[in-house]
Design a protein that fits this description.
The complex is a heterodimer of chains A (about 130) and B (about 80). Chain A contains six helices and no strands. Chain A has helices at about 10-25, 25-30, 35-55, 65-70, 80-90, 95-130. In chain A, helix 1 (about 10-25) runs antiparallel to helix 6 (about 95-130) and helix 3 (about 35-55) runs antiparallel to helix 6. The radius of gyration of chain A is 17 Å and the shape is elongated. Chain B has about 80 residues and is mostly helical. Helix content of chain B is about 70%, strand content about 0%. Chain B has helices spanning about 1-10, 30-45, 50-80. The chains are: A mainly alpha (about 130), B mainly alpha (about 80).
Chain lengths: ~130, ~80
């Protein structure tokens, strides 16, 4: 497994990997040197997000709904969409478009959580290998 | 150019008109593809294009087949219990 030559090691490195993976999907894998996986994860999660928003509109990102917490796992930037809808656009969506939009964006968030956990775990393995090689 | 971008962004402010029809189930397919692709991206050590597409397609097919079989099983169960 390849890894970037980071000066940051140990728990701070893992926190950075997890945090980066939350803010930008796939960034955690990029930091641990898995460029292809990072690209695939970014493309797939953003695709699911865009399809969900396109079908249901930005109104599916609603801070009053339980799905919001799954959607926020994609990135904290999604809070901006909820804010925009609440202040500027005031869009309402009901029925099947709402369901489909929420499911797409919620599942994308939960997949990003899986990727964050995976990146942190792989980062932990890299830390162990670095310690053993000293 | 800016007008085109504006039109594209405006499409995110209007929901689609989708009824509760059997065709709406087809929306599950892109989502299953995303799940298969992301899962394989976290599992495969070294990603090469051909093998990654093949394994993701196999997983996608497996999930679709399993969901169809589950739907048929539940339909039969409901038919014979509730009626």
């Amino acid at each position: 497994m390849s890894s970037r030559n980071f000066k940051l090691e140990g728990v701070p490195f893992l926190v950075l990997v997890g945090f980066a993976g939350w803010w930008i999907p796939g960034m955690g894998h990029l930091l641990i040197g898995k460029k292809n996986a990072a690209g695939v994860i970014f493309g797939a999660i953003i695709f699911a997000l865009i399809v969900g928003l396109w079908v249901g509109s930005i109104a599916v990102i609603d801070s009053h709904e339980p799905w919001y917490w799954a959607q926020m796992l994609i990135s904290p930037f999604l809070g901006l969409l909820s804010y925009l809808n609440g202040t500027e656009y005031h869009i309402s969506v009901f029925g099947k478009p709402r369901e489909i939009g929420q499911i797409y964006t919620g599942v994308a968030g939960m997949l990003n959580l899986l990727c964050i956990v995976n990146a942190v775990y792989l980062g932990h393995i890299i830390n162990i290998k670095k310690r053993e090689s000293r | 150019m800016i007008a085109h971008i504006g039109i594209m962004l405006a499409s995110f402010t209007r929901p689609w008109d989708i009824g509760a029809t059997p065709g709406a189930l087809l929306f599950a397919l892109p989502l299953i593809a995303v799940v298969a692709v992301v899962y394989k991206a976290t599992k495969i050590e070294k990603i090469t294009l051909a093998s990654f597409i093949k394994t993701s397609a196999i997983l996608f097919g497996s999930i679709v087949v399993f969901m169809v079989l589950t739907a048929i099983g539940l339909f039969v169960l409901v038919r014979f219990t509730v009626g």
